[in-house]
């Protein structure tokens, strides 16, 4: 199943870019992989951590998409990404992950950390939203409790598989995007009757004004029957 894919990835309110994104469709296996990773800004080289995880997932999918199903791909990529993170530095580093894998008529959402996926179906609204892996510490401060960190065990991502319907929209984004919006506003935008490119343009314009962090997004649209063959 091909999907319409529109992306953005900007520095926002930071001088250094620590988000990484990836989007690719494999024609021969009818599989797409779409990834947003947000490197931890308070740790060492978030940019390197996020790009490393993206590269590992892309490599595993490139090598095995033709013969493996999505769960097996995610399992191997998670193990290899953790191994790669462990070799990068003796300083603490880490990154979140959110991805969508399309295969046939199914979409699998997977995530670790507080980068999010919103799955929108008209007229129902949000039929699935990832739950941030956030824990409140002893001092009352929230912190990302799951992700790809060196010196820590990594869990397999939380996953959800949904049978796609024409017109569905999926937004993958770092916290630099949803952190700009009041509660419910981003969902309202995704439900509007406008082209996907216009929605992403709106996100960019809004985040350019209000973002205090890097912001990255991938908007996926399941095409209607008449344009099912276009990506």
Describe this structure in words.
With 231 residues, the protein is an alpha+beta fold. It is 27% helix and 33% strand. The longest helix is centred in the first third of the chain and has 19 residues.
Describe, in short, the structure shown.
The protein has five helices and 14 strands. It has 231 residues and is an alpha+beta fold.
Radius of gyration: 17 Å
Distance between the termini: 9 Å
Strand content: 25-35%
Compressed to H and E, one letter per element, the order equals EEEHHEEEEEEEEEEHHHE
How many strands, which pairing sense, and closed or not: the largest β-sheet? 5 strands, antiparallel
The helix/strand class is: alpha+beta
Supply database-style keywords.
alpha+beta, 14 strands, 5 helices, single chain, 5-stranded antiparallel beta sheet, 27% helix, 231 residues, globular
List the helices and strands and how they pair.
Blueprint: E1 4-10, E2 19-26, E3 31-38, H1 46-64, H2 70-86, E4 94-95, E5 97-103, E6 106-112, E7 116-121, E8 125-129, E9 134-136, E10 142-144, E11 148-149, E12 158-163, E13 169-173, H3 175-178, H4 185-191, H5 196-210, E14 215-221
Antiparallel strand pairs: 1-14, 2-3, 3-5, 4-11, 5-6, 6-12, 7-8, 7-13, 9-10, 13-14
Helix pairs in contact: 1-2
